[in-house]
Design a protein that fits this description.
This protein is mainly β. The protein has five helices and 25 strands.
């Protein structure tokens, strides 16, 4: 019998400890405690509207002690380059978009714990638009969309709590927590919660090889839950695969689905991380290539190195095709010195490995070039 899954939207609004069976936020020490009660100093050491750090710092608090009660309202007020939003603990149930003109923005979770600041909505690809013009589609489902270059977030949770069990007959089950398209986009100590298509690390257009950096982040989902065509480095990140009560057999899903442009020499790099699972052993594939109809010349690229792959990954056949016309063997999938039961080389032809010399070209420095977000001291976070 398939067990029911409690609603994530209820889970996000409860105190820590409730709903732990969902496995949310394991990398950060447990489930979110957002939305419980106001704190006496909501912005911590980051000032307040009465003691503003800089003229371009805005304060957001759902309990009304900041400049704004919603993130989007603060974004709208922060026109131009270089604004900082300090987000007080709370659950922000809204959809947020940062346009291309708002470059160099920084969002800071004031407590330093990403469980405390949650931006969440429940839109899926198949959700009908209010004006009757159709459904939102994958990109339109995103809770947060970042078009601008130079975006940085620290200690924030981005979530989409739409569940298949809410609409079991829908085919548009993609539900994006965040879509990031800008160059030089960095996320430190953040969480990304969803099911299908959780983290969309993409670019604004085919000619832009947008660089993105994710440091000590936690990402969870089931189908293709880290996907897109960005040049993205996942440094010391934790990826967690969920159960699928709607399925009775493997595979439940795929962790990565890169769609790297053929002309881009660098796609996704996972380094020093881990992949865990609450699903049965071997019920997840590590990746499959996404060659979208909008770019049939794409050559998806994924390098996973020095990362622990748990037993949830199918070690015999860790890769699969999304479409037979674009077999994974013809794409750019490589591994290097991974550990754990999911990394066992059982069928060598199914586990393409980098040589030591080749691995020297697959580092965060090589992927990010003259942009070095990893050299900046962390202002806070759980490490």
């Amino acid at each position: 019998m398939r067990r029911p899954v409690p609603s994530r939207r209820g889970f996000l609004l409860t105190t820590a400890g409730a709903g732990a069976a969902l496995g949310l936020g394991l990398a950060a020490g447990g489930p979110a405690a957002a939305g419980t009660r106001p704190r006496p100093r909501p912005f911590g050491r980051y000032g307040s509207p009465a003691a503003r750090r800089t003229p371009t710092t805005l304060y957001v608090d759902p309990h009304g002690r900041g400049d704004f009660t919603s993130v989007q309202a603060a974004v709208d007020a922060a026109a131009g380059d270089g604004w900082t939003l300090v987000l007080a603990p709370g659950t922000y149930r809204e959809r947020v978009s940062v346009d291309t003109g708002r470059t160099g923005a920084t969002w800071i979770g004031a407590s330093g714990d990403p469980r405390d600041v949650v931006i969440v909505h429940d839109t899926a690809a198949g959700t009908p638009k209010p004006d009757g013009s159709g459904t939102y589609g994958t990109s339109g489902s995103a809770t947060t969309t970042v078009h601008a270059d130079g975006f940085t977030a620290r200690a924030v949770t981005f979530a989409n709590d739409w569940l298949r069990s809410d609409q079991p007959d829908w085919t548009g089950t993609q539900a994006v927590a965040i879509k990031v398209m800008g160059d030089r986009s960095a996320f430190h100590d953040c969480r990304f919660l969803g099911h299908q298509d959780t983290l969309y690390a993409d670019t604004r257009d085919l000619g832009l090889f947008a660089r993105q950096y994710y440091e000590r982040c936690y990402v969870e989902g089931d189908v293709d839950f880290v996907f897109g065509r960005a040049t993205a480095v996942y440094d010391q990140c934790h990826f967690h695969t969920l159960v699928r009560p709607d399925l009775d057999a493997a595979p439940y899903g795929f962790v990565f689905a890169p769609s790297t442009a053929g002309a881009n020499p660098r796609g996704y790099l996972v380094t020093g991380g881990r992949v865990s699972s609450e699903a049965p052993d071997g019920f997840y594939k590590l990746a499959r290539p996404w060659v979208p109809s909008s770019d049939t010349t794409a050559r998806p690229m994924l390098t996973v190195r020095e990362t622990r792959l748990g037993a949830g990954i199918d070690a015999v056949a860790p890769y699969a095709n999304m479409r037979d016309a674009h077999p994974w063997q013809e794409q750019r999938f490589r591994e290097y010195r991974n550990t754990g039961p999911g990394a066992a080389v059982i069928v060598p032809g199914n586990r393409p490995q980098l040589t030591r010399a080749e691995a020297a070209a697959h580092t965060r420095e090589a992927y990010l070039g003259d942009w070095r977000p990893h050299d900046r001291p962390a202002h806070h976070g759980r490490g």
